[in-house]
Amino acid sequence: MNIAYWIVAGLLALFYFYAGTLKVIRSRDQLRPMMAWVDRIPLPALRALGTVEVLGATGLVLPPLTGIAPSLAPAAAIGFVLLQTGAIAVHLTGEDRRIALNVGLTAAAAMTIWPATRL
Predict the structure, then answer these.
(1) What is the DSSP secondary-structure string of 53-108?
(2) Which residues, at least 6 apart from 59, have a Cβ–Cβ distance to it below 8 Å?
(3) Burial state string for 54-81 with b = 16 or more CB within 10 A and e = fewer than 16
(4) Within its chain, how far is the Cα of 44 from the centroid?
(5) What value does the mean pLDDT take over residues 63-74?
(6) Residue 98's pLDDT band (boundaries 50, 70, 90)?
(7) How many angstroms separate the CA atoms of 83 and 119, rounded?
(8) Distance in angstroms (rounded) separating the CA atoms of residues 94 and 13
(9) What SS3 class is residue 42?
(10) pTM of the full predicted structure?
(11) How far is Cα 98 from Cα 51, in angstroms, rounded to an integer?
(12) Which of 14, 27, 30, 61 lies 20 to 30 Å from 118 when distance is taken between CA atoms?
């Protein structure tokens, strides 16, 4: 179970750290080709979303790795499930109906919740 957690959590952390960093440092014009929805939310909200993703990625990996506040790992996984639920809603209410990635990320984050409580 430990190995499965680290594989899934590691991949999620890499994805969210990368995506969050892009949202924090890139301009709206640079993000538009990858994320059609960026024009629908204010820039400060986009930056905050990126920050939350980076912090969540850190929360999936660092607490279990160091043994300091390991309860943050399941909290981060739950946060990612909620984040992707909101992302699916944003995609479905807009013109972009591609939600396969969001559904996959939701499932992956949900799969890490229970193992994270056992670390």
Answers:
(1) HHHHHHHHHHHHHH-SSTTHHHHHHHHHHHHHHHHHHHHHHSS----HHHHHHHHH
(2) 72, 73, 75, 76, 79
(3) bbbbbbbbbbbeeeeebebbbbbbbbbb
(4) 18
(5) 95
(6) confident
(7) 23
(8) 27
(9) coil
(10) 0.92
(11) 23
(12) 14
Taking each helix axis from N to C end, the angle separating 100-117 and 2-25, rounded to the nearest 10 degrees, works out to 130
Question: Which residue type sits at 50?
Answer: G
Nearest to 58 by CA among 93, 112, 9: 9
Structure tokens at 18: 């990368």
Q: Tell me 33's DSSP state.
A: T
Let me know the angle formed at the C-alpha of 47 by 38 and 68, rounded to the nearest 5 degrees: 130
**Residue 96 contacts by C-beta under 8 Å, 6 or more apart in sequence?**
36, 37
The residue length of the chain stands at 119
Q: How far is CA 27 from CA 6, 37, 40, in A?
A: 32, 13, 14
- Whole-number pLDDT of residue 78: 98
Instruction: For residue 53, give every residue at least 6 positions away whose Cβ sits within 8 Å of its Cβ, in sequence order, or none.
Output: 16, 17, 19, 20, 23, 83
